[in-house]
Amino acid sequence: MSTPPLTDCVKANIEAYFNDLDGTEPANMHDMLTRAVEKPLLEVVMARAQQNQSRAAQWLGLNRNTLRKKLLEHGLLDG
Fold first, then answer.
1. 59 lies in a domain?
2. pLDDT tens-digit map of 13-41
3. Is the pTM for the entire model greater than 0.85?
4. CA-CA distance, 2 to 15, in Å (whole number)?
5. Which of 3, 47, 52, 70 is the most buried (most CB within 10 A)?
């Protein structure tokens, strides 16, 4: 059995989020979703890159300083 595409998983979870709101208006969804996806993405990429920030930044298409800033924001790096 194959895993559903990432976009299908995201869509299903967003639909579930709206269902859980039960008619309440959502707020700041873009920021919430970005933060929810960004941290696990950084965790997995850093692990796969064996904590090499330059390699991880290259894989992510980010400047190394931007990656470092994001790692700090998510508490994935000691200040």
1. yes
2. 999 999 999 999 999 999 999 999 999 99
3. no
4. 22
5. 70
